[in-house]
Amino acid sequence: MANSLAGATQDEVRRHNLGNLLQLIHVHGATSRSDLTALTGLNRSTVGALTTELADAGLVSEQAPVGRGGAGRPSIMVRPQTQRVYVLALDVGVDHIIAARVGLGGEVLDRRELRQSRGDYQMSKILRHVEQLGRSVLAGASPDSVCVGIGAGVCGVVSHADGLVRFAPNLGWVDVPFGTQIADRLATTLPVVVGNDADLGAIAEHVRGAAKGSANVIFLSGEVGVGGGIILDGRPMSGAGGYGGEVGHMAVNPRGRLCRCGARGCWETEVGEEAALLAAGRPEATIEQIVALADAGDRQARAGLRRVGGWLGIGVANLVNLFNPEVVVFGGVFRQLFPATETMVRAALGTALSAPREQVRLALPQFGGDSTLLGAAESAFAPLLDDPLGALAHGSVRLRA
Amino acid sequence: MANSLAGATQDEVRRHNLGNLLQLIHVHGATSRSDLTALTGLNRSTVGALTTELADAGLVSEQAPVGRGGAGRPSIMVRPQTQRVYVLALDVGVDHIIAARVGLGGEVLDRRELRQSRGDYQMSKILRHVEQLGRSVLAGASPDSVCVGIGAGVCGVVSHADGLVRFAPNLGWVDVPFGTQIADRLATTLPVVVGNDADLGAIAEHVRGAAKGSANVIFLSGEVGVGGGIILDGRPMSGAGGYGGEVGHMAVNPRGRLCRCGARGCWETEVGEEAALLAAGRPEATIEQIVALADAGDRQARAGLRRVGGWLGIGVANLVNLFNPEVVVFGGVFRQLFPATETMVRAALGTALSAPREQVRLALPQFGGDSTLLGAAESAFAPLLDDPLGALAHGSVRLRA
After folding, report:
1. For residue B396, what pLDDT is reported?
2. Within an 8 Å CB–CB cutoff, is residue B16 touching chain A?
3. How far is CA B335 from CA A377, B97, B367, in A?
4. Closest in B214, B240, B250 to A359, CB measured
């Protein structure tokens, strides 16, 4: 049982409340003091004192509303200082590197993307690209703004404790201290939070995307590999070491192909991008091309998609039976594959137990290909939202852009 | 983000602290006031005032220690009133009904078991047995003791919100309001908490059994069907409706047999009791007999166990990749099957990703066949531990035994 109230000092309560308010403003955007009062259960004068403190720290701005709707005094609006307080978000996938400056409140202020050719994953080259893109987006920040953190998504197994990338088979990485390397390259003492791409995608879609308001969420991602980010009871599932959610390595087909991980018949050998292209008989094509061919009536493409859709549904049924989510979000390559195979997916999902099946909704990500990037931004904001003034005191080292 | 501190009144803090202390005493047994002070972070005088309040309510007893070990004043010992405060715990499985009186602190005060023959699951008959066993164990309680709740475990899919048994294929139940029926039979207004057998087994082994001290736990149970109880980050996983953890219905073998649930190749069709007996070529035998035959060198029994062990390991590897647990506890029929197939299970587990695999421990339940029963007791105690004085005020209706 959490011991969250016992022994809390007045100062701890104040810091907790400051974080709570800033979190609300970060997620909801501009919010009136009276709405903040209602949302937190704190009294009006406490909210006023705390938002003034956040404003003095430069985290929010306060402004009397222009019009007045309804009865009573108009309440002061509290807005996140989106332009002034930001994080650097990074997403390193098998065929892209994205860097963005994301402001408090979740707005993307600047975004640069580099497509990289597959298989050419020299660590030094990736780090050089990350540095170039990072410095480039940071250079656009105004002099009076402050970078409060760095978050990075990677398509691999990441240790929760230290951000070590334990295993990224599709990048060829083993035990890579990516966070430290990014900090070194950017010559910063800012905290660098490294996370699994699917875990971060789940966070972004849960906080402000297709799964907003749902407490139990599965976000599927994948280009070459297939990953899963899982939110349970409103909190990211991590497991003992942060390695949970490796849905791509559910064994579903004992007669299937050998997987990169060494096992046979993993889900990703049936539904990953490579599996889809092989099933469609066109290993050199792209998923977009296969979908277009199927739409145009190509038999082999259609058969391939049917096969993949069936396996996709079987795996989703497993996840529904295991996790009982309200939403499954189809990110990564499934943004194309799910709409093209929805009938087969839903038919296979019919084999899930009815109680959890009745509760699940299938959805596409609201942020398209940027769910991981925006989740990386959320993870980078987390220390600030946990203890706004403390984080600002420790972390206000301006990055040299 | 939880809003646990904001807006809490002094009375709420006090109730929270009372619950926290009683929880500690319930789990740890007799604990000194100075240890409680250290464990809660509350100050000494607050702990003294609160334990006095718990003692006045009859929930704990306070006593100066007899000897004095080491320096300083000896600290007053606080003990749970095990004989005076108890719950009624029930476990309804496919071949047994168990009822027990379990005292605060987790001690089994009285326990009665009825073996039932399979397939004969008339609801009225089960309820009659539950009533008889329940009244029988309650009759042994002393007149100055009080029953604070009832918990029941069932091998089926149970709705978190209302305790409705949605689907118990191996009992032949669909949408059975078992909690209400128990309360009616026992003519009580006490709360009756109904839970899935595996979920409750996980709680008991997590709180005070083989998985004590581990925050991420999977408890496997099963007689005819196979269930999973999952604890993540110290909290039972429930999913949107309480239906999560249906590990028996992971599709692992697309060429497998048809499952009771209607799908093909579910894990329980490969590793459940029936599957093991079929694999050993002796559908009429018991698992104990198969294991004994294999030990005696019977070829078919050995081949059957090898087959089941391989599938057991494949499923456990899936769970390790998905949940990254510290412990997997083999309850139910796996109490026999796991020791008999451990080599095969560990070999198949070798296909899990190394990062989560390195962290997992395989264990047998500390409570033998009583994990579910004791978990039902824990769930029955939960309202009392959440708000001791409030629950006692509302729930102190003595059961007529």
Report:
1. 46
2. yes
3. 46, 19, 11
4. B240
